Amino acid sequence: MPPHDEESTTASSKETGRVEAFSDGVFAIAITLLLLDIKVPHASESDVGLGTLLLRQWPSYVAFLASFATIGIMWINHHRLFTHIVRSSHALLLLNSLLLLGVVVVPFPTALVAEYFGHEGEHLAAMLFSGTFLLIAIIFNVLWRHASKHLLGHNANHPQVREISKQYRFGPLFYVVCLLLAPLSVGASIGMNLALAIFFALPRVSVQRRSRA
Amino acid sequence: MPPHDEESTTASSKETGRVEAFSDGVFAIAITLLLLDIKVPHASESDVGLGTLLLRQWPSYVAFLASFATIGIMWINHHRLFTHIVRSSHALLLLNSLLLLGVVVVPFPTALVAEYFGHEGEHLAAMLFSGTFLLIAIIFNVLWRHASKHLLGHNANHPQVREISKQYRFGPLFYVVCLLLAPLSVGASIGMNLALAIFFALPRVSVQRRSRA
Amino acid sequence: MPPHDEESTTASSKETGRVEAFSDGVFAIAITLLLLDIKVPHASESDVGLGTLLLRQWPSYVAFLASFATIGIMWINHHRLFTHIVRSSHALLLLNSLLLLGVVVVPFPTALVAEYFGHEGEHLAAMLFSGTFLLIAIIFNVLWRHASKHLLGHNANHPQVREISKQYRFGPLFYVVCLLLAPLSVGASIGMNLALAIFFALPRVSVQRRSRA
Amino acid sequence: MPPHDEESTTASSKETGRVEAFSDGVFAIAITLLLLDIKVPHASESDVGLGTLLLRQWPSYVAFLASFATIGIMWINHHRLFTHIVRSSHALLLLNSLLLLGVVVVPFPTALVAEYFGHEGEHLAAMLFSGTFLLIAIIFNVLWRHASKHLLGHNANHPQVREISKQYRFGPLFYVVCLLLAPLSVGASIGMNLALAIFFALPRVSVQRRSRA
């Protein structure tokens, strides 16, 4: 192997490394800031017990869990994509920044859903919630389309790459369903988001096992 | 050493690397956000001095310290486990996400304990506090059981691995004691949590020394 | 290759690595904290719908986007500079700390613009907004001037280094324009900041392609 | 070089790597959270202009700058120490956790100084401010004493190590002076902290140059 090649590989892996590190930081902070929207009920509101006060906040917990699960799965996907991506490009940096913009925004519609559940405006809140995830899923597709064409290594695992491409093509459709459910039933829409996160979490196991076998 | 093997090792160490980096980020943010629950008393409340105002908040400090120590010890344990784990798996990613969910949640029961200490509801707050740590300890056990079976390197230090497994089996039991103490005495329960963190911190020294000798 | 050389290279790349990791963390947190300034309107303000309440906050969104885009571009630039920088120096650490001070401060003028847009004081808020970015651009120049003289590798890509130097010389001038626009029109000044971020984002593609060809 | 040695070096550098990554995260978050204590004055307080409202907050800015500079210098020191530390130990992890506890706490006394400057209680606030830095400086000393005895590499630069040890021995004394100044003059005490950060920042340049020459 010529030394020049070796060096350029090291340089580009360093580039991807920082993109991943920065993304990890943003994912980690966004997923942790979600908790700030779960409020501590004040001790002075003494006519009902703490248990009742905490139970009344259940929409906060559901929205928190749905967002945590979705950001978590998105991080796992990000992680999986960057296992295949060995080069960086300016387009990758920009698409990744757009993706992170989406991830950073997530705590806002999450707080909206928690605040407006059961009040007027809950349908709009749920639409913004699913709409944010839909946008992130679309950006993920564009990023992966760019990366799978230009930034994979020579020894990229092609069946696995095609498998990811196939799965990703349908990802946004699921969030369209969540978005369309929002004006009908907020509970169904948020529940579908949670279910999607669990669904996206499970099949990967079989895919990885198959590709390793 | 065949080049294929070399490559797969590099690839998997990169995978574990990002899981660790993401986890480090979440641990670091959760441990830092704990401080946000320690409030600055307002300067205008002038009938008592700042010293008195600060001393009145002592339950905040104890809850902060207990949570800081516990998250700190959990990070050290996470760090220790991933010294042995050389491969990643989808199950590891999911279990690690569950673990991080627990860690992210910690500031909430911490704030509850600080707010409700000495008020009605303090026992429930203390139960949620210990209950969160109990859940994290259980997830740690499941994660380690999975990892110790499937994801260790060829040169995994077996006596050390078995030592960790033995120690972990008893971890949740201690938090069950904290949980059972909560309805009796909030102070005893929180104090036991702090004591546990210190206890978990100390014996590791001897274990590591023995295994290195 | 003599072992001594090898070692010193490893040591310095480790040094730069931590500077980059710390910077990534600060960039990631500052870019995520921007969201905290977008407030959730309270559900009880029932005379107007959620949609109206959200639309009224549009200056918050514009300020958020301009700051997100600018911090994002600054991170990409930071990343690009440190691809060339192979050694660390105390001056680099200090200049980098100053740069991070600027980045950390960004959410404050962003919140000022969002709060004061359309009120008395909006011109001052917009001047502080552009002034912060101007200061960061100047520090970037000083940092790059120091680094390009003292801290590049033997195989530093000289045309690319000169290209960056040329581009950077003009960076602060653009922010001076934003600063001068602020007392005339807040909208034009903030809009120019957003446009600058997009402009800075695009030309890099052609530069990188050319230098790789 | 025997392969076994090589491996153990890699393993321990990985250990130190995560300690550094976690510490970087905590330093980065603590230094960024400092900004949350600088409040945006409300637009409705219309009897005075924004400029006046902002100027009135000057103690916030000074406290922010002093804390930012001190945490920044502490990070640079941490970075410098870990350039020499090649092995990890449980004691290092514990001492480092104590150090991070100090760093995480810094935004609290900073907010106290900003809130109480010019009010009753300002002397106590300033004492807590300097006291926090004193404690951190002491922990730094203990950590370095442990590390310099047990965790340096074979090729550790001994004159540089002794230089650091000498410098560190006097660090806490300076913060004792800040602490003793606090009951006399809050401004002098905070100013001395800022001056110390600048002083600690400068001499390192000459030390590093000398040791590299």
Shape of chain A: elongated
Instruction: Calculate the terminal CA-CA distance of chain A, rounded to whole Å.
Output: 29 Å
Main beta-sheet strand count, sense and barrel state of chain A: none
Helical/strand content category of chain A: mainly alpha
- SSE pattern of chain A: HHHHHHHHH
- How many domains is the backbone of chain A divided into? 1
Question: What is the helix fraction of residues of chain A, given as a range?
Answer: over 70%
Give the mean pLDDT of chain A: 81
Strand content of chain A: under 5%
The rounded Rg of chain A comes to 20 Å
Count every beta strand of chain A, where a strand is a DSSP E run of 2 or more residues.
Answer: 0
> Which pair of protein chains has the largest interface, and what are the residue counts?
A-B, 33 and 37 residues
List the uncertain runs of chain A.
1-13, 203-213
Oligomer: homotetramer
Separate helix tally of chain A: 9
Structural features, described:
The structure is a homotetramer of 213-residue chains. In chain A, helix 3 packs parallel to helix 6 (122-150) and helix 3 (58-84) runs parallel beside helix 8. Chain A is built from nine helices and no strands. With 213 residues, chain A is an all-alpha fold. Residues 1-13 and 203-213 of chain A have low confidence and may be disordered. Chain A has one domain. Chains A and B meet through helix 1, helix 2, helix 3 and helix 9 of A and helix 1, helix 4 and helix 5 of B.
